[in-house]
Structures are given as C-alpha cells and as structure tokens.
Design a protein that fits this description.
With 127 residues, this protein is mostly helical. The chain has a domain of 86 residues. Helices cover 61% and strands 0% of the residues. The longest helix is centred in the middle third of the chain and has 21 residues. The protein is elongated, with a radius of gyration of 28 Å.
C-alpha cells in the first residue's frame, strides 16, 4: 500500500510532533476540560495509537509506526504506575475496598496440633 502524502519530510515531522503532543497531553493533562476528558479515556487513546501504529506498519512507514507504538507504550506504562494516585485529582472519591486485618487473614490454629512442650517432656518423647 503506497500513501505518498507520508513521503514528505515535513508532513512526517509535523505528524510526529502532533502524536507526541497528544501522548503528553494524555499523560500530563492541563486543567482544561478537553484535556481532562482525553486523560480519562487514556486506555482508548493508547489503543488508538496502537491501531495507528499498525496502520503505519501496513503502509511501510516505520518511523511513524515506532512513534505511535512508543506513545502507546508510554501511556500504558505511566497510567499503570499511577494506579490509585490518578484518582486523587477527580472530584469523586475512589472506590475503597475493605482491607482485611492480618489476624483475619491467618487461619485459625487447631489447639490440639500445637502443644507446648517443656524440656523435661521432650526428653521423655525421644526415648
């Protein structure tokens, strides 16, 4: 498949700048509603970059393909590392799950299995 518009150097450079700016706007959004919406839908943006990278693979534009795949990877890695911290900027509180205490996580010990043994008793059991 030959798409000659991407053969122009300035078009490739401009598209690279736009793709990188879109990725950075998703990772570090300014306090504007449009950018906040873009950052909230980061999974779909990353998938879009991935699909665009596959498109550039098909038309044999390796530089643009690597830019798209790198943008997708950067969004995925950054959003994965943020985890719950990403929810701190939202107005609604994040979902909280009950945390089990360590005592609840341990199984109940059967008192017949563990019997304290004094030093005198241990010598009797060895004989």
């Amino acid at each position: 498949m030959d798409v000659s518009i991407f053969d122009n150097r300035r078009v490739r450079q401009g598209l690279t700048v736009v793709l990188l700016a879109g990725s950075l706007a998703c990772i570090f959004p300014p306090k504007l509603p449009a950018f906040q919406w873009w950052a909230e839908h980061a999974v779909f943006v990353a998938m879009g970059f991935l699909l665009l990278g596959l498109f550039f693979l098909v038309i044999n534009k390796s530089r643009l393909m690597f830019v798209c795949l790198g943008c997708s990877a950067a969004i995925c890695f950054f959003k994965n590392e943020m985890g719950e911290k990403a929810h701190l900027n939202n107005l609604s509180p994040p979902l909280s799950y009950p945390v089990d205490s360590p005592a609840q996580n341990r199984k109940q010990q059967d008192p017949t299995l563990f019997k304290p043994v004094s030093p005198d008793e241990s010598s009797k059991t060895r004989q």
